[in-house]
Amino acid sequence: MTDLILQALFSGVLIGGVYALVALGLALAFGAMRIINLAHGELVLLAAYMAYLVESRTGLDPYWAIPLALVVVMAVSWALFVLVDKIKDHRELNSLILTFAIGIILTNAILLIFASDMRSTSSAFLQDAVSFGDLFAMRGEIIAFVLSVVLMGVLWWWLKSSWYGRAVRAVSSNRNAARLMGINPARIETVSFLVAGALASFAGVALYTMSVVQPATGHALTVKAFIITVLAGVGSIPGVFLGAVLLGVTEALTVTLASSALQELAGMVLFLLVLFLLPNGLFGARARRG
Amino acid sequence: MLELDAVTVRFGGLTALSDISFHIKKGEILGLVGPNGAGKTTLFNSISGLVKARGRITFNGTDVTGLPLHKRARAGIGRTFQIPQPMHHLSVRENLAVAQVFGAGRHDENRIDEILAVMELSHKADADAANALALQELKRLEIAKALATEPKLLLLDEVLAGLESNAKRSFMMKLKELHKLFGLTIVIVEHDIETISGLCTRAVVLNFGQLIADGSPTEVFNNPAVVESYTGTAHA
Predict the structure, then answer these.
(1) Which of B51, B52, B89 best probes binding to A when mutated, by most A CB atoms within 10 angstroms?
(2) pTM of the entire structure?
(3) Chain B contact for A187, CB < 8 A?
(4) How far is Cα B7 from Cα B54, in angstroms, rounded to an integer?
(5) Which residue of A238, B112, B114, B193 has the smallest Cβ count within 10 Å?
(6) pLDDT tens-digit readout, A206-260
(7) Within an 8 Å CB–CB cutoff, is residue A181 touching chain B?
(8) How many angstroms away from the CA of A100 is the closest CA of chain B?
(9) How many CB atoms lie within 10 A of CB A43?
(10) Cβ–Cβ below 8 Å for B87 and A170
Protein backbone atom coordinates (compact mmCIF):
# COMPACT_ATOMS: atom_id res chain seq x y z
CA MET A 1 0.00 0.00 0.00
CA THR A 2 2.82 2.41 0.89
CA ASP A 3 4.43 1.71 -2.47
CA LEU A 4 1.18 2.59 -4.23
CA ILE A 5 0.85 5.84 -2.30
CA LEU A 6 4.47 6.79 -3.02
CA GLN A 7 3.94 6.01 -6.70
CA ALA A 8 0.78 8.14 -6.71
CA LEU A 9 2.67 11.01 -5.07
CA PHE A 10 5.43 10.71 -7.67
CA SER A 11 3.00 10.62 -10.60
CA GLY A 12 1.08 13.54 -9.07
CA VAL A 13 4.22 15.66 -8.89
CA LEU A 14 5.07 14.90 -12.53
CA ILE A 15 1.62 15.79 -13.91
CA GLY A 16 1.57 18.79 -11.53
CA GLY A 17 4.55 20.24 -13.37
CA VAL A 18 2.57 20.36 -16.62
CA TYR A 19 -0.53 21.65 -14.84
CA ALA A 20 1.65 24.50 -13.53
CA LEU A 21 2.62 25.43 -17.07
CA VAL A 22 -1.07 25.50 -18.07
CA ALA A 23 -1.98 27.62 -15.04
CA LEU A 24 0.87 30.11 -15.52
CA GLY A 25 -0.50 31.09 -18.93
CA LEU A 26 -3.91 31.76 -17.42
CA ALA A 27 -2.38 33.65 -14.48
CA LEU A 28 -0.20 35.80 -16.74
CA ALA A 29 -3.13 36.95 -18.89
CA PHE A 30 -5.16 37.56 -15.73
CA GLY A 31 -2.34 39.54 -14.13
CA ALA A 32 -1.86 41.83 -17.12
CA MET A 33 -5.47 42.38 -18.18
CA ARG A 34 -7.59 41.33 -15.18
CA ILE A 35 -9.50 38.94 -17.41
CA ILE A 36 -9.92 35.21 -17.00
CA ASN A 37 -9.26 33.58 -20.35
CA LEU A 38 -11.76 30.71 -20.36
CA ALA A 39 -10.34 29.55 -23.72
CA HIS A 40 -6.85 28.99 -22.30
CA GLY A 41 -7.37 25.23 -21.92
CA GLU A 42 -8.42 25.06 -25.58
CA LEU A 43 -5.17 26.82 -26.55
CA VAL A 44 -3.27 24.08 -24.71
CA LEU A 45 -5.42 21.49 -26.45
CA LEU A 46 -4.72 23.08 -29.82
CA ALA A 47 -1.00 22.67 -29.21
CA ALA A 48 -1.55 19.03 -28.20
CA TYR A 49 -3.31 18.41 -31.52
CA MET A 50 -0.44 20.09 -33.38
CA ALA A 51 1.81 17.50 -31.74
CA TYR A 52 -0.57 14.75 -32.84
CA LEU A 53 -0.66 16.19 -36.37
CA VAL A 54 3.13 16.28 -36.73
CA GLU A 55 3.58 12.83 -35.20
CA SER A 56 0.83 11.18 -37.24
CA ARG A 57 1.75 12.83 -40.57
CA THR A 58 5.54 12.78 -40.39
CA GLY A 59 6.36 10.05 -37.87
CA LEU A 60 8.57 12.54 -36.03
CA ASP A 61 8.75 12.75 -32.26
CA PRO A 62 5.91 15.04 -30.96
CA TYR A 63 8.41 17.54 -29.57
CA TRP A 64 9.26 18.46 -33.18
CA ALA A 65 5.80 20.04 -33.27
CA ILE A 66 6.80 22.82 -30.86
CA PRO A 67 7.64 25.40 -33.60
CA LEU A 68 4.31 24.73 -35.37
CA ALA A 69 2.42 24.82 -32.06
CA LEU A 70 4.11 28.10 -31.13
CA VAL A 71 3.11 29.74 -34.42
CA VAL A 72 -0.49 28.48 -34.42
CA VAL A 73 -1.28 28.92 -30.72
CA MET A 74 0.43 32.30 -30.35
CA ALA A 75 -1.48 33.53 -33.44
CA VAL A 76 -4.79 32.34 -31.95
CA SER A 77 -3.84 33.84 -28.57
CA TRP A 78 -3.07 37.17 -30.25
CA ALA A 79 -6.39 37.09 -32.15
CA LEU A 80 -8.12 36.36 -28.85
CA PHE A 81 -6.42 39.38 -27.28
CA VAL A 82 -7.51 41.61 -30.17
CA LEU A 83 -11.14 40.53 -29.65
CA VAL A 84 -10.98 40.98 -25.88
CA ASP A 85 -9.35 44.39 -26.32
CA LYS A 86 -12.35 45.53 -28.37
CA ILE A 87 -14.56 45.20 -25.27
CA LYS A 88 -14.90 48.70 -23.89
CA ASP A 89 -17.41 48.27 -21.06
CA HIS A 90 -17.40 45.79 -18.16
CA ARG A 91 -14.40 44.04 -19.64
CA GLU A 92 -13.98 41.57 -16.76
CA LEU A 93 -17.51 40.20 -17.15
CA ASN A 94 -17.92 40.44 -20.92
CA SER A 95 -14.54 38.83 -21.55
CA LEU A 96 -15.72 35.76 -19.62
CA ILE A 97 -18.58 35.32 -22.10
CA LEU A 98 -16.35 36.06 -25.08
CA THR A 99 -13.53 33.69 -24.11
CA PHE A 100 -16.01 30.97 -23.11
CA ALA A 101 -17.56 31.24 -26.60
CA ILE A 102 -14.11 31.16 -28.25
CA GLY A 103 -13.34 28.04 -26.22
CA ILE A 104 -16.48 26.37 -27.58
CA ILE A 105 -15.57 27.39 -31.14
CA LEU A 106 -12.03 26.01 -30.75
CA THR A 107 -13.31 22.74 -29.24
CA ASN A 108 -15.74 22.24 -32.09
CA ALA A 109 -13.15 23.18 -34.70
CA ILE A 110 -10.81 20.55 -33.25
CA LEU A 111 -13.69 18.05 -33.15
CA LEU A 112 -14.47 18.78 -36.80
CA ILE A 113 -10.89 18.45 -37.98
CA PHE A 114 -9.53 15.67 -35.76
CA ALA A 115 -12.74 13.77 -34.75
CA SER A 116 -13.61 12.85 -31.18
CA ASP A 117 -11.16 9.96 -30.78
CA MET A 118 -8.70 9.97 -27.91
CA ARG A 119 -5.15 10.66 -29.05
CA SER A 120 -1.83 9.93 -27.39
CA THR A 121 1.74 9.59 -28.52
CA SER A 122 2.84 6.40 -30.24
CA SER A 123 6.51 7.16 -29.58
CA ALA A 124 8.12 4.13 -27.98
CA PHE A 125 10.90 6.36 -26.70
CA LEU A 126 8.49 8.57 -24.77
CA GLN A 127 6.41 5.63 -23.51
CA ASP A 128 9.39 3.69 -22.17
CA ALA A 129 9.37 3.21 -18.41
CA VAL A 130 12.11 4.82 -16.34
CA SER A 131 12.66 3.62 -12.79
CA PHE A 132 13.81 5.60 -9.74
CA GLY A 133 14.22 2.87 -7.14
CA ASP A 134 10.73 1.51 -6.61
CA LEU A 135 9.10 4.38 -8.47
CA PHE A 136 8.28 4.33 -12.16
CA ALA A 137 7.38 6.92 -14.78
CA MET A 138 7.15 7.12 -18.54
CA ARG A 139 10.10 8.87 -20.13
CA GLY A 140 7.60 11.33 -21.63
CA GLU A 141 6.45 12.28 -18.12
CA ILE A 142 10.00 12.96 -16.96
CA ILE A 143 10.82 15.06 -20.04
CA ALA A 144 7.56 17.00 -19.69
CA PHE A 145 8.25 17.70 -16.01
CA VAL A 146 11.82 18.86 -16.66
CA LEU A 147 10.62 21.03 -19.56
CA SER A 148 7.98 22.59 -17.31
CA VAL A 149 10.45 23.36 -14.53
CA VAL A 150 12.91 24.90 -17.01
CA LEU A 151 10.17 27.03 -18.61
CA MET A 152 8.98 28.19 -15.20
CA GLY A 153 12.55 29.23 -14.45
CA VAL A 154 12.74 31.12 -17.75
CA LEU A 155 9.40 32.83 -17.07
CA TRP A 156 10.51 33.73 -13.54
CA TRP A 157 13.73 35.24 -14.93
CA TRP A 158 11.82 37.11 -17.65
CA LEU A 159 9.35 38.61 -15.20
CA LYS A 160 12.08 39.46 -12.68
CA SER A 161 14.87 40.72 -14.90
CA SER A 162 13.65 41.89 -18.31
CA TRP A 163 12.15 45.35 -18.81
CA TYR A 164 9.05 43.89 -20.45
CA GLY A 165 8.69 41.41 -17.59
CA ARG A 166 8.93 44.24 -15.07
CA ALA A 167 6.41 46.21 -17.12
CA VAL A 168 4.02 43.23 -16.98
CA ARG A 169 4.37 43.26 -13.20
CA ALA A 170 3.86 47.04 -13.16
CA VAL A 171 0.67 46.90 -15.28
CA SER A 172 -0.54 43.96 -13.19
CA SER A 173 0.05 45.98 -10.04
CA ASN A 174 -1.48 49.30 -11.06
CA ARG A 175 -2.52 49.99 -14.63
CA ASN A 176 -2.88 53.78 -14.37
CA ALA A 177 0.30 54.24 -12.37
CA ALA A 178 2.12 52.18 -15.01
CA ARG A 179 0.69 54.36 -17.80
CA LEU A 180 1.97 57.44 -15.96
CA MET A 181 5.42 55.86 -16.04
CA GLY A 182 5.22 55.87 -19.86
CA ILE A 183 4.19 52.22 -20.21
CA ASN A 184 1.79 51.44 -23.04
CA PRO A 185 -0.54 48.86 -21.43
CA ALA A 186 -1.90 47.62 -24.78
CA ARG A 187 1.60 46.58 -25.82
CA ILE A 188 2.26 44.89 -22.48
CA GLU A 189 -1.07 43.04 -22.66
CA THR A 190 -0.23 41.86 -26.18
CA VAL A 191 3.12 40.57 -24.97
CA SER A 192 1.42 38.83 -22.03
CA PHE A 193 -1.04 37.06 -24.31
CA LEU A 194 1.76 35.99 -26.65
CA VAL A 195 3.79 34.62 -23.75
CA ALA A 196 0.66 32.89 -22.40
CA GLY A 197 0.21 31.38 -25.89
CA ALA A 198 3.84 30.20 -25.88
CA LEU A 199 3.38 28.58 -22.47
CA ALA A 200 0.18 26.91 -23.73
CA SER A 201 2.12 25.61 -26.75
CA PHE A 202 4.77 23.90 -24.63
CA ALA A 203 2.16 22.65 -22.15
CA GLY A 204 -0.01 21.17 -24.93
CA VAL A 205 2.86 19.31 -26.60
CA ALA A 206 4.11 18.08 -23.19
CA LEU A 207 0.61 16.94 -22.26
CA TYR A 208 0.29 14.97 -25.50
CA THR A 209 3.52 13.09 -24.76
CA MET A 210 2.38 11.90 -21.32
CA SER A 211 -1.40 11.66 -21.43
CA VAL A 212 -4.38 11.18 -23.71
CA VAL A 213 -6.16 14.14 -25.27
CA GLN A 214 -9.59 14.55 -26.83
CA PRO A 215 -11.60 17.63 -27.83
CA ALA A 216 -13.31 17.85 -24.42
CA THR A 217 -9.95 18.04 -22.61
CA GLY A 218 -9.62 21.79 -23.12
CA HIS A 219 -12.44 22.78 -20.82
CA ALA A 220 -11.13 20.47 -18.05
CA LEU A 221 -7.69 22.06 -18.40
CA THR A 222 -9.14 25.57 -18.00
CA VAL A 223 -10.91 24.45 -14.82
CA LYS A 224 -7.68 22.91 -13.47
CA ALA A 225 -5.74 26.09 -14.30
CA PHE A 226 -8.38 28.16 -12.53
CA ILE A 227 -8.27 25.90 -9.45
CA ILE A 228 -4.46 26.14 -9.32
CA THR A 229 -4.54 29.93 -9.63
CA VAL A 230 -6.98 30.10 -6.71
CA LEU A 231 -4.87 27.62 -4.71
CA ALA A 232 -1.71 29.63 -5.35
CA GLY A 233 -3.10 33.11 -4.99
CA VAL A 234 -2.28 35.50 -7.79
CA GLY A 235 1.28 36.68 -8.27
CA SER A 236 3.62 33.86 -7.36
CA ILE A 237 5.31 31.41 -9.76
CA PRO A 238 6.50 29.11 -6.94
CA GLY A 239 2.96 29.31 -5.55
CA VAL A 240 1.50 28.23 -8.89
CA PHE A 241 3.98 25.33 -9.07
CA LEU A 242 3.15 24.15 -5.54
CA GLY A 243 -0.59 24.58 -6.16
CA ALA A 244 -0.29 22.57 -9.37
CA VAL A 245 1.67 19.81 -7.63
CA LEU A 246 -0.92 19.75 -4.84
CA LEU A 247 -3.70 19.33 -7.41
CA GLY A 248 -1.74 16.66 -9.29
CA VAL A 249 -1.01 14.72 -6.10
CA THR A 250 -4.63 15.02 -4.90
CA GLU A 251 -5.89 13.66 -8.22
CA ALA A 252 -3.32 10.85 -8.29
CA LEU A 253 -4.08 9.80 -4.71
CA THR A 254 -7.81 9.86 -5.44
CA VAL A 255 -7.31 7.58 -8.43
CA THR A 256 -5.10 5.22 -6.40
CA LEU A 257 -7.10 5.12 -3.18
CA ALA A 258 -10.64 5.57 -4.47
CA SER A 259 -11.60 5.69 -8.14
CA SER A 260 -10.57 7.44 -11.33
CA ALA A 261 -14.20 8.54 -11.65
CA LEU A 262 -13.62 10.81 -8.64
CA GLN A 263 -10.45 12.44 -10.01
CA GLU A 264 -12.08 15.68 -11.19
CA LEU A 265 -14.27 15.84 -8.10
CA ALA A 266 -11.19 15.69 -5.84
CA GLY A 267 -9.82 18.82 -7.50
CA MET A 268 -13.10 20.65 -6.99
CA VAL A 269 -13.26 19.61 -3.31
CA LEU A 270 -9.72 20.91 -2.82
CA PHE A 271 -10.74 24.14 -4.57
CA LEU A 272 -13.76 24.63 -2.28
CA LEU A 273 -11.76 23.82 0.85
CA VAL A 274 -9.15 26.46 -0.02
CA LEU A 275 -11.86 29.00 -0.88
CA PHE A 276 -13.52 28.45 2.51
CA LEU A 277 -10.42 28.20 4.67
CA LEU A 278 -7.82 30.35 2.85
CA PRO A 279 -9.64 32.75 0.51
CA ASN A 280 -6.34 34.45 -0.46
CA GLY A 281 -4.95 31.13 -1.62
CA LEU A 282 -2.24 29.03 -0.04
CA PHE A 283 0.55 31.41 -1.02
CA GLY A 284 -1.19 34.61 -2.13
CA ALA A 285 -1.78 36.57 1.10
CA ARG A 286 1.35 38.69 0.77
CA ALA A 287 0.81 39.35 -2.92
CA ARG A 288 -2.68 40.69 -2.36
CA ARG A 289 -1.97 42.92 0.58
CA GLY A 290 -2.21 46.66 -0.06
CA MET B 1 5.25 75.66 -21.19
CA LEU B 2 1.64 74.52 -20.65
CA GLU B 3 -1.34 76.28 -22.17
CA LEU B 4 -4.94 75.39 -21.43
CA ASP B 5 -7.51 76.77 -23.84
CA ALA B 6 -11.22 76.40 -22.98
CA VAL B 7 -10.69 73.01 -21.31
CA THR B 8 -14.05 71.46 -20.51
CA VAL B 9 -14.84 68.10 -18.94
CA ARG B 10 -18.31 66.65 -18.61
CA PHE B 11 -19.34 63.43 -16.85
CA GLY B 12 -22.81 62.75 -18.25
CA GLY B 13 -24.89 65.78 -17.25
CA LEU B 14 -22.31 67.07 -14.77
CA THR B 15 -19.83 69.72 -15.90
CA ALA B 16 -16.68 69.10 -13.87
CA LEU B 17 -14.61 71.74 -15.66
CA SER B 18 -15.97 74.62 -17.67
CA ASP B 19 -13.90 76.61 -20.17
CA ILE B 20 -10.69 76.65 -18.14
CA SER B 21 -8.01 78.75 -19.79
CA PHE B 22 -4.63 79.73 -18.34
CA HIS B 23 -0.97 79.15 -19.01
CA ILE B 24 1.98 78.03 -16.93
CA LYS B 25 5.44 79.45 -17.52
CA LYS B 26 8.61 77.39 -17.44
CA GLY B 27 10.10 77.26 -13.94
CA GLU B 28 6.93 78.39 -12.16
CA ILE B 29 5.57 76.81 -8.99
CA LEU B 30 1.83 77.21 -9.35
CA GLY B 31 -0.69 76.40 -6.64
CA LEU B 32 -4.02 74.99 -7.75
CA VAL B 33 -6.54 75.82 -5.08
CA GLY B 34 -10.23 75.32 -4.47
CA PRO B 35 -12.76 73.69 -2.16
CA ASN B 36 -13.56 69.98 -2.39
CA GLY B 37 -15.28 69.19 -5.69
CA ALA B 38 -13.90 72.32 -7.37
CA GLY B 39 -12.36 70.30 -10.20
CA LYS B 40 -8.67 70.39 -9.22
CA THR B 41 -8.02 66.65 -9.61
CA THR B 42 -10.15 66.56 -12.77
CA LEU B 43 -7.92 69.30 -14.20
CA PHE B 44 -4.84 67.19 -13.32
CA ASN B 45 -6.55 64.18 -14.93
CA SER B 46 -7.19 66.24 -18.07
CA ILE B 47 -3.60 67.47 -18.31
CA SER B 48 -2.08 64.05 -17.65
CA GLY B 49 -4.56 62.28 -19.95
CA LEU B 50 -6.58 60.22 -17.48
CA VAL B 51 -9.83 61.82 -18.64
CA LYS B 52 -10.78 63.15 -22.04
CA ALA B 53 -11.26 66.89 -22.24
CA ARG B 54 -12.69 69.23 -24.82
CA GLY B 55 -10.75 72.36 -25.71
CA ARG B 56 -7.00 72.38 -26.24
CA ILE B 57 -4.03 71.48 -24.07
CA THR B 58 -0.67 72.56 -25.49
CA PHE B 59 2.57 71.41 -23.89
CA ASN B 60 5.87 72.89 -25.06
CA GLY B 61 4.21 74.02 -28.27
CA THR B 62 2.66 70.62 -29.07
CA ASP B 63 -1.06 69.92 -28.92
CA VAL B 64 -1.34 66.97 -26.52
CA THR B 65 -5.14 67.01 -26.17
CA GLY B 66 -5.58 63.76 -28.08
CA LEU B 67 -2.48 61.98 -26.79
CA PRO B 68 -2.88 58.91 -24.54
CA LEU B 69 -1.58 59.07 -21.01
CA HIS B 70 1.65 57.13 -21.57
CA LYS B 71 2.65 59.39 -24.47
CA ARG B 72 2.07 62.51 -22.36
CA ALA B 73 4.27 60.98 -19.67
CA ARG B 74 6.99 60.38 -22.27
CA ALA B 75 6.56 63.97 -23.50
CA GLY B 76 7.51 65.23 -20.03
CA ILE B 77 4.29 65.53 -18.01
CA GLY B 78 4.84 63.85 -14.65
CA ARG B 79 2.09 63.39 -12.12
CA THR B 80 1.48 62.06 -8.62
CA PHE B 81 -1.76 60.88 -7.02
CA GLN B 82 -3.21 62.06 -3.73
CA ILE B 83 -3.25 58.45 -2.53
CA PRO B 84 0.17 57.01 -3.38
CA GLN B 85 0.03 54.34 -6.05
CA PRO B 86 3.23 52.31 -5.94
CA MET B 87 3.64 49.40 -8.29
CA HIS B 88 3.21 46.69 -5.70
CA HIS B 89 5.01 43.76 -7.23
CA LEU B 90 8.22 45.78 -7.71
CA SER B 91 10.89 46.98 -5.31
CA VAL B 92 11.39 50.72 -4.74
CA ARG B 93 14.39 50.73 -7.09
CA GLU B 94 12.45 48.76 -9.74
CA ASN B 95 9.59 51.27 -9.51
CA LEU B 96 12.03 54.00 -10.46
CA ALA B 97 13.92 51.94 -13.05
CA VAL B 98 10.72 50.98 -14.91
CA ALA B 99 9.58 54.61 -14.83
CA GLN B 100 12.93 55.74 -16.21
CA VAL B 101 13.17 53.13 -18.97
CA PHE B 102 9.62 53.53 -20.25
CA GLY B 103 9.12 57.21 -19.39
CA ALA B 104 12.51 58.70 -20.23
CA GLY B 105 13.62 56.02 -22.69
CA ARG B 106 16.96 55.31 -21.00
CA HIS B 107 18.41 53.44 -18.05
CA ASP B 108 20.82 55.30 -15.80
CA GLU B 109 21.44 53.73 -12.38
CA ASN B 110 23.40 56.81 -11.21
CA ARG B 111 20.39 59.00 -11.85
CA ILE B 112 18.17 56.54 -9.96
CA ASP B 113 20.59 56.59 -7.04
CA GLU B 114 20.50 60.39 -7.13
CA ILE B 115 16.70 60.45 -7.02
CA LEU B 116 16.65 57.86 -4.23
CA ALA B 117 19.12 59.96 -2.25
CA VAL B 118 17.31 63.26 -2.71
CA MET B 119 13.98 61.63 -1.82
CA GLU B 120 15.61 59.95 1.23
CA LEU B 121 14.72 56.47 0.02
CA SER B 122 18.21 55.01 -0.48
CA HIS B 123 17.90 52.83 2.61
CA LYS B 124 14.66 51.34 1.25
CA ALA B 125 15.83 50.91 -2.35
CA ASP B 126 15.48 47.15 -2.38
CA ALA B 127 12.39 47.00 -0.17
CA ASP B 128 9.02 45.85 -1.44
CA ALA B 129 7.23 49.05 -2.45
CA ALA B 130 3.86 47.85 -1.16
CA ASN B 131 4.71 46.45 2.23
CA ALA B 132 7.84 48.11 3.57
CA LEU B 133 7.10 51.83 3.34
CA ALA B 134 5.35 54.20 5.75
CA LEU B 135 2.93 56.85 4.43
CA GLN B 136 5.58 59.59 4.17
CA GLU B 137 7.92 57.22 2.35
CA LEU B 138 5.14 56.20 -0.03
CA LYS B 139 4.53 59.89 -0.79
CA ARG B 140 8.23 60.36 -1.46
CA LEU B 141 8.23 57.28 -3.70
CA GLU B 142 5.26 58.72 -5.59
CA ILE B 143 7.32 61.83 -6.39
CA ALA B 144 10.48 59.79 -7.04
CA LYS B 145 8.64 57.67 -9.65
CA ALA B 146 7.50 60.81 -11.42
CA LEU B 147 11.03 62.27 -11.28
CA ALA B 148 12.44 59.09 -12.80
CA THR B 149 10.44 59.75 -15.98
CA GLU B 150 12.46 63.00 -16.24
CA PRO B 151 9.45 65.31 -16.42
CA LYS B 152 9.57 68.94 -17.40
CA LEU B 153 6.23 69.60 -15.73
CA LEU B 154 5.37 67.94 -12.42
CA LEU B 155 1.75 67.80 -11.23
CA LEU B 156 1.54 67.13 -7.48
CA ASP B 157 -1.89 66.18 -6.19
CA GLU B 158 -2.15 66.97 -2.46
CA VAL B 159 1.24 65.46 -1.62
CA LEU B 160 1.20 67.24 1.73
CA ALA B 161 -2.21 65.93 2.80
CA GLY B 162 -2.20 63.90 6.00
CA LEU B 163 1.18 65.21 7.17
CA GLU B 164 1.58 66.98 10.54
CA SER B 165 2.89 70.54 10.45
CA ASN B 166 6.62 69.80 10.95
CA ALA B 167 6.55 67.07 8.29
CA LYS B 168 4.65 69.44 6.03
CA ARG B 169 7.28 72.18 6.39
CA SER B 170 10.07 69.73 5.73
CA PHE B 171 8.24 68.41 2.66
CA MET B 172 7.83 71.99 1.39
CA MET B 173 11.58 72.49 1.68
CA LYS B 174 12.06 69.25 -0.22
CA LEU B 175 9.80 70.45 -3.04
CA LYS B 176 11.77 73.71 -3.31
CA GLU B 177 14.96 71.65 -3.48
CA LEU B 178 13.52 69.46 -6.27
CA HIS B 179 12.35 72.50 -8.19
CA LYS B 180 15.87 73.90 -8.15
CA LEU B 181 17.80 70.64 -8.56
CA PHE B 182 15.82 69.23 -11.49
CA GLY B 183 14.80 72.52 -13.12
CA LEU B 184 11.14 71.63 -12.81
CA THR B 185 7.93 73.47 -13.43
CA ILE B 186 5.52 72.44 -10.67
CA VAL B 187 1.76 72.62 -10.27
CA ILE B 188 0.59 71.62 -6.81
CA VAL B 189 -2.94 71.02 -5.58
CA GLU B 190 -3.12 72.09 -1.95
CA HIS B 191 -5.76 73.33 0.49
CA ASP B 192 -3.45 74.93 3.00
CA ILE B 193 -3.11 78.69 2.41
CA GLU B 194 0.16 78.87 4.36
CA THR B 195 1.69 76.18 2.16
CA ILE B 196 0.61 77.86 -1.06
CA SER B 197 1.88 81.23 0.17
CA GLY B 198 5.22 79.77 1.25
CA LEU B 199 5.80 77.63 -1.80
CA CYS B 200 4.13 79.12 -4.85
CA THR B 201 4.80 82.17 -6.94
CA ARG B 202 1.29 82.08 -8.37
CA ALA B 203 -2.08 80.53 -7.52
CA VAL B 204 -5.10 79.60 -9.61
CA VAL B 205 -8.41 79.07 -7.85
CA LEU B 206 -11.20 76.82 -9.10
CA ASN B 207 -14.74 76.63 -7.79
CA PHE B 208 -17.52 74.46 -9.19
CA GLY B 209 -15.36 73.71 -12.22
CA GLN B 210 -14.73 77.36 -13.06
CA LEU B 211 -11.61 79.47 -12.76
CA ILE B 212 -12.42 82.27 -10.31
CA ALA B 213 -9.00 83.78 -9.59
CA ASP B 214 -5.46 83.82 -10.95
CA GLY B 215 -2.58 85.80 -9.45
CA SER B 216 -0.03 85.91 -6.66
CA PRO B 217 -1.02 83.96 -3.50
CA THR B 218 -1.61 87.21 -1.62
CA GLU B 219 -3.86 88.54 -4.38
CA VAL B 220 -5.99 85.43 -4.73
CA PHE B 221 -6.45 84.82 -1.01
CA ASN B 222 -7.72 88.37 -0.62
CA ASN B 223 -10.04 88.01 -3.60
CA PRO B 224 -13.65 88.26 -2.32
CA ALA B 225 -14.82 85.52 -4.69
CA VAL B 226 -12.17 83.17 -3.30
CA VAL B 227 -13.03 83.97 0.30
CA GLU B 228 -16.70 83.38 -0.46
CA SER B 229 -15.98 80.06 -2.15
CA TYR B 230 -14.15 78.84 0.97
CA THR B 231 -16.37 80.30 3.69
CA GLY B 232 -19.68 80.62 1.91
CA THR B 233 -19.80 84.27 2.97
CA ALA B 234 -18.70 87.50 1.33
CA HIS B 235 -15.36 89.01 2.31
CA ALA B 236 -15.64 91.72 4.93
Answers:
(1) B89
(2) 0.85
(3) no
(4) 6
(5) A238
(6) 999 998 999 999 999 999 998 898 888 666 788 889 999 999 999 999 998 888 8
(7) yes
(8) 29
(9) 34
(10) yes
CA–CA separation, B118 and A259 (whole Å): 65
> What is residue B100's DSSP assignment?
I
DSSP-assigned letter for residue B101:
I
- Nearest residue on chain B to A186, alpha-carbon basis: B70
**Closest CA of chain B from A25, distance in Å:** 18
Q: Which of B79, B88, B148 sits opposite A174 (nearest CB)?
A: B88
Q: Using CA atoms, how far apart are residues B218 and A57, in angstroms rounded to an integer?
A: 84
Please report how many Cα atoms fall inside a 13 Å half-sphere around the Cα of residue A224, on the Cβ side.
Answer: 31
Q: Which of B53, B62, B31, B70 is CA-nearest to residue B213?
A: B31
Sign of CA dihedral A139, A141, A147, A153: negative
Complex prediction ipTM: 0.83
Length of chain B: 236
Per-residue pLDDT of A22-50, as tens digits, reads: 999 998 888 777 788 999 999 999 999 99
Which A residues, 141 through 170, put their C-beta within 8 Å of a C-beta on chain B? Answer: 163, 166-167, 169-170
- Name chain A contacts of B87, Cβ cutoff 8 Å: 169-170, 173-174, 177-178, 181
Q: Do residues A43 and A197 touch, judged by C-beta distance below 8 A?
A: yes
Query: In sequence order, what are the residues at sequence separation of 6 or more whose Cβ sits closer than 8 angstroms to the Cβ of residue B125?
Result: B91, B92, B93, B116
Please report how the helices B135-148 and B165-181 are oriented relative to each other, as an axis angle in degrees rounded to 10: 10
